[in-house]
Design a protein that fits this description.
By secondary structure, the chain is of the alpha+beta class. The protein has two domains: 136 residues, Rossmann fold, CATH 3.40.50; 153 residues, Tumour Suppressor Smad4. The protein contains six helices and 16 strands. Strand 14 and strand 15 form a beta hairpin. The longest helix has 21 residues. It is globular. It starts with a strand and ends with a strand. GO terms for molecular function: NAD+ kinase activity. It comes from Corallococcus interemptor. Keywords: Kinase, Transferase. InterPro entries: NAD/diacylglycerol_kinase_sf (IPR016064).
């Protein structure tokens, strides 16, 4: 069934700085010149490198091991016959999950002191056992509902945590929105669409703001929406809608299901985007005339758990 193990890694902060400044010495000068401790960058990089080196030997389970940097994942050809192991922060798992299809994904936490590891249930020493159980069909797998944005030309973008639809910069996003039998023109800071897995992240900050403002004005705050990771629905909120003669704020949030899509038509001549999981380079252009249909994706992520 499986033909190889794909080990997905990421650049550390230090590695990114060396790419930017050409040498480690120049990177050190930049960091220390800005009053930061360079030893923290070195320690993080060293811990990560040791974890990856250890993993490569741990993953010797009789199959070829191919190491792939996160930047190459969007163009990497997954055939469906790989066990995918992601070693890094939680965000790495979220970004890899939408590209691997139905393949099981093993998240490994290389540095528990630095990373929360909500999506990284395994330490490097446990990775071999997790992969072995996956190869033998004995692994416990948790399904995670993904979100999908699809344009009228067939382009689509998946999200593990959330989609953002709006303007690339801090100008107002202008669009026509259709939801629940209603339609209106809006000008806002964009629309946030969250999966169950992402509902404790960006979406929760929107509710925190709403609750705080409600208390400040003497009201009684409502409860945040709760979604399970497996729930076949999404939650959307409109960020800071502006009411004018040409824009309304009647449609400000709700749940999106297969039977009730959220449809957005861009009114932005330039700078309109849809991006996924906080990665601005992972985007669709959403310029004037583009129509995006938002719904739960048919594809789900499959995370290997204890």
């Amino acid at each position: 069934m499986f033909e190889k193990v794909v080990l997905v890694t990421r650049k550390t902060r230090l590695a990114d700085l060396v790419v930017r400044f050409n040498t480690k010495k120049q990177a050190r000068f930049y960091v220390e010149h800005n009053g930061q401790d360079f030893h923290g960058f070195e320690a993080e990089d060293d811990t990560y490198r040791r974890a990856v080196d250890g993993l490569r030997s741990q993953l010797d389970v009789g199959l070829p091991v191919q190491q792939v940097d996160r930047s190459l994942v969007p163009t990497f050809l997954f055939t469906g016959k790989e066990v995918v192991v992601a070693v890094g922060q939680d965000g790495l798992v979220a970004n890899v999950a939408k590209y691997v299809g139905s393949q099981p994904l093993v998240g490994v936490n290389p540095d528990p002191e630095r990373f929360d590891g909500v999506l990284l249930p395994f330490l490097p020493k446990d990775a071999r056992g997790a992969v072995q159980r996956t190869l033998e069909g004995r692994a416990r797998v948790r399904q995670v509902q993904l979100a999908e944005a699809r344009l009228q030309d067939g382009q689509r973008l998946l999200a593990f945590n959330d989609l953002f639809i709006g303007a690339r910069t801090h100008v107002s996003a202008r669009y026509q929105v259709r939801y629940g039998g209603k339609e209106e023109s809006q000008s806002s800071s964009g629309v946030l669409v969250s999966t169950g897995a992402g509902s404790s992240g960006w979406l929760s900050s929107v509710f925190a703001l709403a609750q705080g403002l409600t208390r400040c004005t003497g009201g009684t705050p409502g409860k945040p929406w709760s979604l399970g990771w497996e729930d076949a629905k999404l939650a959307f909120v409109v960020r800071e809608p502006f009411v004018s003669r040409h824009s309304g704020a009647d449609i400000v949030g709700g749940f999106v299901t297969a039977g009730q899509e959220l449809v957005l038509e861009s009114r932005m001549p330039q700078g309109g985007v849809i991006f996924s999981d906080g990665m601005e380079e992972d985007f669709l252009t959403f310029g004037a005339g583009a129509t995006a249909r938002i719904r739960p994706a048919e594809q789900s992520a499959r995370l290997v758990v204890h």
